[in-house]
Every structure is written in C-alpha cells, then in structure tokens.
Amino acid sequence: MTSRKFAVKKIGIIERYQEFLPITERTPIISLNEGNTPLILAEALPVELGLKNIRIYYKFEGLNPTGSFKDRGMTMAISKAMESGAKAVICASTGNTSASAAAYASRCGLKCFVLIPEGKIAKGKLIQAYRYGAKTIMIKGNFDQALKLVQEISADGKITLVNSVNPFRIEGQKSAAFEIVDDLGDAPEYHAIPVGNAGNITAYWKGYNEYKKAGRSDTLPKMLGFQAAGSAPIVEGKPVPNPETIATAIRIGNPASWKGATNARDESGGLIEAVTDEDIRKAYRFIAEREGVFAEPASAAAVAGVIKLAKRNYFESNTRIVITLTGAGLKDPDIAMSFDDKIECVEPDISKVKEVIQS
Ligand code: F0G
Question: How wide is the angle at C-alpha 113 spanned by C-alphas 199 and 254, nearest 5°?
Fold first, then answer.
C-alpha cells in the first residue's frame, strides 16, 4: 500500500489568524474547521430597496460547524481552557453559545454545563447542546439571570466560564472581520450586526481596528447594531428587566459587553437602533424567499435594520454594506412554521396535486 496524501487541508480560525491571536506553542488547538464562511453578494435586497451603486453582502455565519458565529469564539475559549488545565466549562445561553460550547467541549473531553431559559430557546439549539452531551439545565428565568448564576458558579475558578465575558471568546470572534477584509480587499463602509449580549459587535470592531493597524486595510466601517424592540436596553439606555422578542437569540435585557457596543458605535460613527418583531419576520422571509439564504430571526434583525436605514436614505452611494447573518435558519423550526402560508397535504392523486400547483 502506498501512503495517501490528503490534498485538502481545511483549517480553522486559530491556525489561519494565529499571529493576531493570544496562543502559544503550548496551546492545544481544539477546532472543528470553523470560520472561512462565505461573503454572499445580495442580489434582491438592493433592487428591492432601490439602492444603486451600493453593494450589500451577507457574511453567512450559519455555515459554521454548529451553525452560528459562536464557533469562532469557542475554538479559542475551549483551546485556552484546555491549555490552562480546565476540567469543565459552563455558560449561560439563549441557545447558540450552549450548542457551540457543548460541541467543542465534547471534542476534547471537557465536561460542559449549560444554563438556558426554559421555553425561550429555539428547538434546534436545545437539541444540539443535549446531543453533544452537555449537562443541559433549564432555568425558570431569562438569559440575564442565567448569566449571573454562571458567573457566580465559576467565580472560584473551578469551572471555566465560556460566555463572551471570557476575553478569548472576543479574540476568536474578531476573525470574522479579518475574513471580510481579506475577501473585499478593504473594510466595507458599513457593517450591520444584531446585538444581544453585545460580544460580537465588540469583537468585530476589535478585529477591524487590529487589521487596520497591521496595514491589512485602509479604512474602518461604521458599525450599525440592531436590537429587537422588546429587548433594546442599549437603545433605551437602561436595562430591560423582562426582555421579549421572537428573536430569542437576542432576548437579552442587560448585555455584558454594553460598553464594547457603545464604544464600537461611537468610535466608528455608527449607530445602534431597534427593529420590531414584525420587521424581523419580514426580513427573515425576504432573505430566505428572495436570496436563498436561510438564517435565524436574530440574524434577520440586522437585515431589518439595513432596510430601515435605507428607507430613510442613510447610506451613501458607492459604498459596501456587510450584514452578519449570525445563525442558521434550521435552528428555529417553530418560527419557520409560524407563518400563514401553510404546507398543503393532499391525497396521492394527480388531480389533487395539480389543484395545488394551479392554486
Ligand atoms: N445572533 C445570534 C444568532 C445569536 O445567537 C446571538 C447571541 C446574537 C446574534 C447576538 O450576539 O450576544 O454577541 O451580541 N447569542 C448568545 C447565545 C447570547 O447565548 O447564544 P451578541
């Protein structure tokens, strides 16, 4: 037998961007080949909005190994946890962080505990944490309460916290900004992103700044953050005790990285605004039905935000807008099936099928 060579070497964000990341020779790289997600040119959206000479791109993070951007941060957080000799990790989550933590922990034999708000997490995400083998605990409360609990539980250092208050999470997540600059050749003029616990907007802003400093880009984007109207503490300027939105991923009333988000907004000359659940639902359908991109409702919040701003002529011409689509549509089947256009079911009879086709 001759030995085989594996021609394709797909690498994750740590190997790809190691010079920008706090790793050492001793850091074990726990990876699922995350990152390297596509920057998809929007075809229908600019036409729908009458935007001439503006290119819109979707950074589709739903194509990461566990279906969300969290994998970028988790590869770093779990690798560093392993380096430090941790035996267990814990997080609070609206679903995606727990799915990602559970996957990366399972890959290296770490125990994983996740606290999630009962009844307010998309089914696909719940199934992920559970099936990747995390000890999954529902709490009769919201994300903010869950986060407070895991911070207390991890305070003695016995269990490592892997929420985005862990700085290694932000370090990993900034790699998405690097990829965008690598793909476009420079930073876009605008970057739109949903805001929940506010780690990701913080991470992108850090990434764009570090890349510029390293001479990889000449410019910085305006950061445009969007919260759901019922969960918009940063927009309102005060915590929301009982946040509500159909976009359960961003159902957060007191974001941990509040300051990071307002810094990104202010330093970039951008904004953070709210979009209604109705706008989120419309944007969610639009990108699936007109662009062929199926993302979850929280991701659609950023699309809804761009639509809102375009309607008031916010964007200058000859510019590029990147919208981060943070998670995959399949994670939330209940929302997907919650619209009026129900799937029809008929007898296996050609006339019945034709009736539906012609209706
Ligand atoms: N989009 C999705 C799909 C998310 O899961 C999250 C956060 C966000 C946007 C907001 O990102 O928190 O960095 O501002 N999900 C966290 C979780 C809170 O537990 O999965 P953020």
Answer: 35
Between the two ends of the chain, the Cα-to-Cα distance in Å is 61
Beta bridge partners of 115: 92, 137
**Cα atoms found within 13 Å of the Cα of residue 283, Cβ hemisphere only:** 30
At 271 the three-state DSSP class reads strand
Contact 293, 60 (CB under 8 A): yes
Tokens 């689509």 belong to residue: 325
> Are the beta carbons of 124 and 331 closer than 8 angstroms?
yes
pLDDT for 2 equals: 57
Q: pLDDT tens across 93-145, in order?
A: 999 999 999 999 999 999 999 999 999 999 999 999 999 999 999 999 999 99
Mutation choice for ligand 1 from 93, 125, 191, 326, CB with most ligand atoms inside 8 A? 326
Ligand 1 residue neighbourhood (C-beta within 6 Å): 68, 70, 93-97, 164, 194-200, 249-250, 296, 298-299, 326-327
Buried b (16+ CB within 10 A) or exposed e, 296-305: bbbbbbbbbb
DSSP-assigned beta bridge partners for residue 324: 59
Lowest average pLDDT, out of 8-17, 253-262, 313-322, 328-337, goes to 8-17
The structure tokens 């407070």 sit at 148
Residues 106-118: tens digit of each pLDDT? 999 999 999 999 9
By the 10 Å C-beta count (0-12 exposed, 13-18 middle, 19+ buried), 174 is classed as buried
Mean pLDDT score, 224-245: 98
